[in-house]
Design a protein that fits this description.
By secondary structure, the chain is α/β, with parallel strands linked by helices. It is built from 13 helices and 9 strands. It is 51% helix and 13% strand.
Length: 288
């Protein structure tokens, strides 16, 4: 395996080599993927204090990836910041290829522009087609499913609600697992082996969604995971993993790219279920 020189290569190397990592090293790897700016701007001791992960885990991770030490891994995380140009390090909007500089978070116009540019980069990443195979596999699973159950809690709730609606509009049996009234476990209990669970979760991962995936595994229900990383706790047990990286400022994560995935899944099913030439007039009335 060649030495990773960019964030994208680093993410790929972690994904390919995760089986060889210890539990602590996987924790460190997850933190590096989620917080590259923290890795870039802090010493390994400070990073350990911020993440509550031992410094030795970051050092061993760097060595496992082929680096001489932590500073070499850190240099990869620093590169996007250096390329962004000199300026304030107060706030940065994270996205797939690095970070978007935001000098003044109180400037609403600047914030809108920065978020827009970061979202464009997230969408451009999707357009590169790296998730096409995963999407095709997910659509094939959903086509065979008796019923598609969709779960997503907290910030992922809007996407889960939309996806279940869109699937029902294209003629699929879909159930949104909302957990209303504390009924999450009972709703997930309706899963069978010939159903499919679509689980949506991004950091910080909702424990309710993780629990739903564990229930699905117990009854043999295939899972389509939509998350930010192959190291995601819902990705570990999934039959298909669709990786999505939306822009994020502090605790505010965009759902732009995630909704693009949902629309692609629904439309892929609509066209895939059409025998011969799709009925475009009928599709216009879907209202998704």
């Amino acid at each position: 395996m060649s030495l990773p020189h960019t964030l994208q290569e680093l993410r790929s190397a972690i994904a390919l080599g995760q089986d060889k990592l210890t539990a602590r090293m996987r924790d460190a790897a997850q933190y590096v993927i989620e917080h590259p700016h923290d890795v870039a701007l802090n010493t390994v001791a400070a990073l350990a204090a911020r993440s509550q992960i031992p410094a030795s885990a970051f050092i061993r991770l760097a060595q496992a990836l082929g680096y001489g030490g932590f500073s070499d891994l850190q240099r990869v995380c620093k590169s996007p910041l250096e390329n962004a140009g000199q300026g304030s390090f107060k706030e940065r909007i994270r996205h797939y290829r690095g970070e978007q500089l935001l000098d003044d978070p109180t400037d609403i116009g600047a914030m809108l522009g920065a978020f827009s540019r970061a979202n464009i980069i997230s969408l451009e990443h999707l357009a590169e087609g790296q998730q096409v195979q995963a999407l095709e596999q997910a659509i094939a699973l959903l086509q065979q499913a008796r019923t598609t159950f969709v779960v997503g809690m907290r910030r992922s709730f809007p996407m889960a609600a939309y996806l279940s609606y869109a699937l029902s509009r294209v003629g699929r049996r879909a159930v949104h697992i909302s957990g209303l009234g504390g009924s999450l476990r009972e709703q997930v209990g309706a899963l069978h082996g010939d159903d499919v669970l679509v689980a949506v979760s991004f950091p910080p991962y909702a424990q309710e969604t993780i629990d739903a995936c564990n229930q699905a595994v117990a009854v043999g229900t295939p899972i389509v995971a939509i998350s930010d990383s192959v190291l995601s706790p819902i990705g570990q047990c999934a039959s298909v993993m669709i990786e999505v990286n939306d822009a994020e400022l502090l605790g505010f994560r965009s759902l732009t790219a995630a909704f693009c995935i949902a629309q692609t899944l629904a439309m892929g099913l609509a066209f895939g279920d059409s025998a011969g030439t799709p009925d475009h007039e009928a599709l216009k009335n879907i209202d998704c």
